[in-house]
From TrEMBL:
This is Enoyl-[acyl-carrier-protein] reductase [NADH]. GO terms for biological process: fatty acid biosynthetic process. Pfam families: adh_short_C2. The active site is at Y150 (proton acceptor), Y160 (proton acceptor). Pathway: Lipid metabolism; fatty acid biosynthesis. It catalyses: a 2,3-saturated acyl-[ACP] + NAD(+) = a (2E)-enoyl-[ACP] + NADH + H(+). It is an enzyme of class 1 (oxidoreductase). Belongs to the short-chain dehydrogenases/reductases (SDR) family. FabI subfamily. Its EC number is 1.3.1.9. The keyword Lipid metabolism applies.
Amino acid sequence: MTHNLLKGKRGIIFGALNEESIAWKVAEKAAEEGATIALSNTAMALRMGTLDKLAEQINAPIIAADATSVEDLEKVFIEAQEKLGGKIDFVLHSVAMSPNVRKHRTYDDLDYNFLNKTLDISAISFHKMLQVAKKLDAINEWGSVVALTYVASQRTFFGYNDMADAKSMLESIARSFGYIYGREKHVRINTISQSPTATTAGKGIKDIENMMDFADKMSPLGNAVAEDCANYCVMMFSDFTRKVTMQNLFHDGGFSSMGMSLRAMNQYAKDLAPYEDENGKVIYG
Ligand SMILES: NC(=O)c1ccc[n+]([C@@H]2O[C@H](COP(=O)([O-])OP(=O)(O)OC[C@H]3O[C@@H](n4cnc5c(N)ncnc54)[C@H](O)[C@@H]3O)[C@@H](O)[C@H]2O)c1
C-alpha cells in the first residue's frame, strides 16, 4: 500500500549494488511513494552489480561516482538536479567498505593505509557529500539526509573491526554538520542504526550469521530487515519528520535497549548444558 509520502520530491541514493542492498530497497520504496530518484555508485560497482535493472525499474538516471572524490560528488549533485528537474529533497548515504575487514586484518594488526581508506569511504565521504551539497546549494529547505550506521559505533562487537571507528565518526558528522545545515538551511541530518542485515557488505563481517541470530534472539521485535529499513528511511525523507535532526535513530527491533532476553539466555544455557561424548564422558560446555 502506498501513501504518496514523497510525491513531488527528488532524491539521490548512494550505495545500491544489488537486490540485497539496503539502498536498493530504499530506492524502490521511495519511488513507490512518488519520488523521482538519481542513483549513484562507483564505476566498479556498476560493473559488478545489477544497478541497471533497478534504474530501469524505477526510471532513474545513474551517475557514477566514487564517494571519496569531491569532484565526482559535485558531478552527482549538479547532474542529478539537471536530470530530475530541480533541487534535491533527500539523500541516502548507504556507503561502506573496510579493506582491513576484507583482507582479514584484525583490530590489533591494522594496516593504516587501509584504515585511512575505511574512514574515507565509510565516514568522511558523508562529510564530503554534505559539504558539496551545501556549497552548491543543491538541497531544498527542509530537505532530509540520512546515513546508515550500526550499533558497533557505540558498543564493542566482535569482528566489526575498524568499521566501528568509521561508524562513530559518521554519527558525529551527522551531529556536527546537522547543526550548521539545520541552522542555515533547515536541512536535517540523521543516522539510522540498522539491525545486522544479510547484504554484500554485511556478509563481509566476521560470523555475521551468528551475529544476526544473536541480535534476532535479543530483540523483542526481532531483527529489522532491509524492507523495514526502507520504510523508516521513507518516513525520515517525508514531511512528517521535519523537526528530527542530529539524531542517531535505532532501527533494530529493540536490540540496543536490551541487556539479556529469555530467548538468548535459553540458547546460551542450552549450548552450555553438559553432554556425554561417545565414550560416556560428561563434557561441560
Ligand atoms: N548489512 C548490515 O548488517 C548493516 C547493518 C547496519 C548498517 N549497515 C550499513 O548500510 C550501508 C549499506 O550497506 P549494505 O549492507 O546495504 O551493503 P552493500 O554492500 O549492498 O552496500 C555498500 C555499498 O557501498 C558502496 N561503496 C563502497 N565503496 C564506495 C565508494 N568509494 N564510493 C561509493 N560507493 C561505495 C558499494 O558499492 C555498495 O553499493 C552501509 O553503510 C552499511 O555499513 C549495514
